[in-house]
Amino acid sequence: MLCVDKTTPGNTVTDYQDKDNREYKYNSFSMIKITSADSATFSFARTCTLENNNQTIKLKDVTVKELNENDEVLGKTFDIGLNCPRGSVKNAYILFTDALSPSNTGTLPRVGAIGRLYSDETMATKTVLSVKDSVTGQYLTYRQPLIANGDFFNKPTGNQAAGFYSFNQETLTINRKPKHRYEVYYRKLPNSTPKAGTISAKMTYNIYYD
């Protein structure tokens, strides 16, 4: 949620209204919902299992002041874990789809590829939610899932490879289980002043392995 701090001197409601016409803090929160695709579409060999395949990530509150001073502010991280019997899977890949706008690739006009997810609240808050790979520091590119037409053997190449990521590369180990970490950011629209409010988005992911 984009909000204001009403208690610190210089940050009171009157201060915000006088300086930036900012609004009161809402009694709600911003979030991003991350869900795996149906098991029939992401798993062909049915060897591996996903850990916590349906997550609702509550983002931390940030102030309009923070977002005005920084193009983006970290909202929270989340992890995706793939559990496979030892030696059963050689390669694993993951792709992400904007669940509210499947054709969205994550770009923003005049800015470029920033892992932007579609949100109904963007115009009201002048803010978008963007997702990065925590390991590479790169914004995600979104795409629609591959057509499930048989066993998956090879990673797409050329123009078909955009948004298709190696999942088992440089994984993060938490509680002795391999995971991959991602970061969700609030990001203000270019040439705009963020407004207080809530913003939410939703994405799905597919994991393919051989």
SSE map:
Elements (H helix, E strand, L loop, with lengths): L1 E2 L9 H7 L11 E6 L2 H4 L6 E3 L2 E5 L3 E2 H6 L2 E12 L8 E7 L8 E2 L3 E2 L2 E2 L4 H4 L1 E7 L31 E2 L5 E3 L2 E12 L11 E10 L1
Parallel strand pairs: 1-5, 2-15
Antiparallel strand pairs: 2-4, 3-6, 6-14, 7-12, 7-15, 8-9, 10-11, 11-14, 13-14
Task: List the keywords.
single chain, 210 residues, mainly beta, Immunoglobulin-like, 6-stranded antiparallel beta sheet, 5-stranded mixed beta sheet, 4 helices, 15 strands, globular, Adhesion_dom_sf, Adhesion_dom_fimbrial, Adhesion_dom_fimbrial_sf, P pilus assembly protein, pilin FimA
Architecture in CATH? Sandwich
Distance between the termini: 40 Å
Multimeric state: single chain
The overall strand count is 15
Protein architecture, described:
There is one protein chain. With 210 residues, the protein is mainly β. The protein has a single domain, classed as Fimbrial-type adhesion domain (Immunoglobulin-like). It has helices at 13-19, 39-42, 64-69, 122-125, and strands at 2-3, 31-36, 49-51, 54-58, 62-63, 72-83, 92-98, 107-108, 112-113, 116-117, 127-133, 165-166, 172-174, 177-188, 200-209. 10% of the residues lie in helices and 37% in strands. It is globular and about 50 Å long. Strands 3, 6, 10, 11, 13 and 14 form a six-stranded antiparallel sheet that branches. Strand 8 and strand 9 (112-113) form a beta hairpin. The chain is built from four helices and 15 strands.
